[in-house]
Amino acid sequence: MVGNKNEATDDVAIVGGGVGGVLAGAMLAHAGRSVILFEAMDYLGGCSGTFERDGQAYNAGATTLIGLEPPLPLGRLARLLGLSLPAHPVDPALKVHLPDRSVRMCRNREALLAEFSAAFPEDDAEGLWRRAFRVADAAWNIIGDLPPFPPRRTKEYAQAIRLSARLLAEGGLDALRPARRVLSPHVRTGDFLRCLDQLLLITNQAPSREVWFLSAALGLSYTTLDTHTAMGGMGAVVEAFAQKIPNVLKGTPVRRIERQGSGYALHTPRGTYSAPTVILNRDIWGAASLFGPKEPRMEKERPEQHDRWGAATLHFMVGDVFPSGMELHHQIHHDQNPETGSHSFFLSLSHPDDRRLSPRGYRSVTISTHTALSLWEGLSTGVYQEKKERLRDFILSHLFRSIPEFLAAEKGTILVGSPRTFARYTRRTGGTVGGIPLRIRDFPFRYPTFRTPFKNVYMVGDTVFPGQGWPGVAVGAMGLVRHLEPGILL
Known about the structure:
Layout: E1 12-15, H1 19-30, E2 35-39, E3 50-53, E4 56-59, E5 65-66, H2 73-81, E6 87-89, E7 94-98, E8 101-105, H3 109-119, H4 125-143, H5 154-171, H6 179-183, H7 190-204, H8 213-221, E9 227-230, H9 234-242, E10 247-250, E11 256-260, E12 263-268, E13 271-275, E14 277-280, E15 310-319, E16 329-333, E17 344-349, E18 362-371, H10 381-402, H11 405-408, E19 415-417, H12 419-425, E20 457-459, H13 469-484
Parallel strand pairs: 1-2, 1-14, 2-10, 7-16, 14-20
Antiparallel strand pairs: 3-4, 5-9, 6-9, 7-8, 11-12, 12-13, 15-18, 15-19, 16-17, 17-18
Helix pairs in contact: 1-9, 1-13, 4-5, 4-8, 7-8
């Protein structure tokens, strides 16, 4: 596929270079399809990318990187594509800071149980996590083989039924129970429940009272999988997969898509491109705008935008005053943040040996917290700036209390981001970030599908598959590729 000067057409055009678009493009190219990918920004990865400001590099969001070993999704894809990903293992995956104690979430399961049993002696942490391990292990054993979701074809239904039967046989009936019902006999203190709910907010985007135990089990046990930090930033992992895509056009937004014969014309600042198949790596709310006002059919399939979270972020460089072996990922719990409505934030610290993110004795810091989108809407410029300053001060005060080394360390300019920031740079509609919450009322069958009302136009990303983070987006992309290339061996 090229611009107006050539009639050649590639097989697949991908609009958006986030994780889902890049993974789908890499798999389709591996299957022999001719693929072109358009990305509006000058870097790939979107909300999971790595950006630069004043010569310093930062991950857009604070997160861990899990599942790089087969048979987990990313490990499976890396092996399929023959890639060695730029990542360094970390253990423990996460340190949780409570107001009066801390817990290390270790990869070793017995160590994890010992940490929580010591931190919450009045609760039955061991009993809860052992139930979670059973369900999660069964789910991970099948998740890489899921058919396109939700299923539509006879073969897809048959595969879904087979895998569901296997899940129940291996994981038991807990997989079908609401999380709060399973938690109830094990949770005896409010402190333990609040801790669990903040952990689930990372992985399920919702607390225990709103989710199934199936998704809760995956969220509570994910730190016992292989966990890594991306060397060179999360964007370096995205770029590694993107090497398999023959034509990647960064800084090239697709402004409009229209039907053209049996395919589609994609209008960009570089010219018009054509393709018979289009994959949209856009959030479900923003995809319809690409087709203009005369194509309203996608609008009616969008879930309500209020059922989404936004993110508020801090990015800064900090002098490397930290002890050797200090954890790279932290979740800090606190009283409600009046600027966001959240009760915790997540911090990622770059690895000291990362040549890009940790230059000359400094380390890159990314802090993310959930926020209601409505709290950032309709604000004047002055009120908005004051709100960002209060957000910064609130987070820093709790950071200094939980990890005192940050207080005395030299710090560079602190960049404060809000949903407005994500809307401007990543083009997420309304500044939404992360997948749609895995609430019982929606998960799994009311979740949006990768299918669209238009023939040979599909979607990929965190709003069209009921899973979270890199693993969830990877599984969703795998399902889409199986739909397009039924014979591909993933």
